Amino acid sequence: MSTSANPVLLDVAKVTAGFEVRSGWSEALHEVSFTVRKREIVGLVGESGSGKSTAVRSVLGLLAAGGRVTGGSATLSCVDGPNQVDLMTCGPRRLRQIRGPQIGFVAQNPFSALNPVIRIRKQFAAIFKAHGLKFGAAERERCVGMLAATGIRDPERVIDGYAFELSGGMAQRVVIAMAMVLEPSLVIADEPTTALDLTVQRQVLDVFAELTMANDRSALIVTHDLAVVANYCDRVIVMLDGRVVEEGDVTQVLTAPRHTYTQHLLASARGRTPDTNGEAVRHGVH
Amino acid sequence: MRGIARYVVQRIVVGWFLFLGLLTLSFSLVSMLPGSPAKAILGEYAAPDDVAALNVKLGLDKPFLERYLDYIGGAMKGDFGKSYFTGNPVLQSLLERVPNTLVYLAPGLILATVLGILFGSVAAYRYRRPADRAFTVGSSVLLAVPEFILALLLIVLCFSGLGIAPAPVGMTSSADAQPPDRTGSLVLDALLGGYWGTFDSILGHAVLPMITVGVFFAAPVSKIVRTGMVQALASPQIEFARACGLRPFQVFRYAMAEIRGTVMTYFVIMLASAISGAAIVESVFSWPGVGGWSLTGVLANDIPVIQGFVVIMGTASLLGYIVLDVTTTLLDPRTRGQVSGKRRPSPRVLAKGLTK
Amino acid sequence: MAFIEAYDLVKRYIRPDGQELVAVDHVGFAIERGDSLGVIGESGSGKSTLARLVLRLIEPDGGSVSIDGVDVRGLRKGDLRRRRSGWQIVFQEPFASLNPRMRIEDIVAEPLVVHEPRLPAKERRDRVVAILEEVGLSGDLIERRPGHLSGGQQQRVGIARALITDPSFVVLDEPTASLDMTIRASVLRTLERLRRDRGLTYLFISHDITTVESMCTHVAVMRHGQLVEDGAACDVLSSPQAPYTKELLSARLLVDPGENRARRELEDLVAAEQQSKEAAGCAE
To answer: In this predicted complex, what is the ipTM?
Structure first.
């Protein structure tokens, strides 16, 4: 099923960003452009230092201290009405209102993302209150339903407990439920299964992809793992050293990669030891 | 719940043994101080017979172990000895003076904590920006200023200069009514007797010592808050909270929960160090608290007074650490679960809770 | 008798809550000289503890290990230290296992200083440069410190340090887990070349099936401290017998562009759910 005819939901255009460092300014993203269409799962692939994390944090307005977007735009088509908003210029207040109801975020490690000393119910409540909603019995039921949808069998008990009482896979399901509870049209997942054990990874990815597709959402999965892309994504964006080096339909990119780096990445992921030297490809070719 | 009660009782029992240890320590350390108390009382040129007689009277001729057992035995009954010079029972002096010290010290430490959290957080939110750099310079300067200089500066500014503070001589003015003596402590008597004018005057006099303590300790607190807050704000937990669109104040509360333990621990450290520093502040303000009292005792080699002060300081930090230990354990659900006897279910049991 | 033989190894820990945890539960295996045994397991399976037990970096509570006919548990401390020049280990976190204040030359030469203290400095340096070049690094790096190297280079330094005493047996504890995919592939290639050139025997600990598949002649699967299954790599990975091995292999995601397996299954599932919803709607 091709998604190329779907309307564009997020249009990132020529975003440049960087960080203040001791010696001045270090550019982490250079004119990065990509799109996410409606009902589409997009994989953003790269290795450490490729800028994939910086790219999604620029979109969400969550760059770490010292980080700044210096150019470009990220236009989000909002679900409520035809209005479009540029996430790079709309200001922190509007951006905060977008995070949650419009764009959900799934963190890498659930145990460091969930608050360890606050009950899960209260963390759900905080999300509702942050967006001017009350958190009553009906909303609690909605959260319980959301937890059940992620495959947690005992959601009533889980919602009244703490994150540390859960296994890694369960905790990541809670994070997914929090990211999707306000029905965002786009969910961004940052290495959603890197911190999990192999047998749990696939279950969690299945849940994530299923909830995305069943509710007509779009997803952007940031990952270093081409296998995740190959199995769950419609399109893939490959990043290297702060630039997008290849973008396209998953089947096309994985069968006929154009960029040397993509070819190399692919060979490595298949367990084949490629002829070229990995370090040389990473540091020599752009 | 029964587990929690048992845990608290356990802490108190442990605390009691630590208190006995503290008594032993204070007794032995102070006994080892050089100099003869009898000579200190009678003067350098006293006749040897007089010195010996006084030693017998003070019980200093007895062997160390006997004196130690006498001291512990007395302490159990609330008798910490009498001052060699004034003859006042140490316990009575403590009861009189501890409230006087607390009346400025407690609000001072709270002020320090509030200021520290305020400035430390602002600096952390403005990390590496001008406001943060200004904070670093300011707090470093403040850390280098001794407490008594700060006190004198405040007196010069608020009393001599602006005239908004009362004279820095004691807790009350001569014009204030004296409440009838009930507890021995002027602060408590004024409260119990309803002498609001007098109490008001005490508070007025307490403002400058309070600000001295508050500002002096605000510098280290704010440094600790800044460091903890910078880390907390960069943590994945805060990032996720922001990514869920939480309001800035909600995010701040999450970050505060992260550094809560550190700040509470520092508060107890600060309490001990503030009591030992009370001597300086109380000397400058002629404040009739435990600090000035102990300073006089130390200078005169008044052993029971010194012991009394060591005990009160030790008890304060001991109580502080017990309260800290219990509250941090109970505030954190992970440790709370352990003491209340609820076992954390194993991941294998939990894995069965999954439908897929 | 096989080159490496482990019988019935046991290691128990007492957890903070007083419960006993059997980290390694009666595990035994054998590796022939020049072979490479991959131990696969998830976190908490005991595979890292096993790696340390084999070299007696931690004392086992039961069982025995023999390396080239030497009873490792029977050795006295001094003998064990001398023998260790022939048995080396490479750890997961390259940076954490290298002292950041030392120069690369001193880090790599450290085992030589211990095992061949009378070696002249000139010769020692020549051996360091030679081994660095053998693991794919430039000899010019000897003056640098670990902080100035990339993750892949740091791990190569770790490998060079393990190989400088010319060992016959090397334990690799997740040597590439913290490396990027492309770097991982070239480090693995180097390890494979070294094994063939030097006739090394490897015990390769990993949670990644693809890594083990590309590196190992034999595979052992661990779970909850127990050995679930072992055998020749091609047998275990192509026709697994134990249910857990099957579960691991089916959970593994492959880069097969044509298949998109997981996604297709899900799409069918979602479509079926929607159909059943619509059907329910019609029935009302």
So the answer is: 0.93
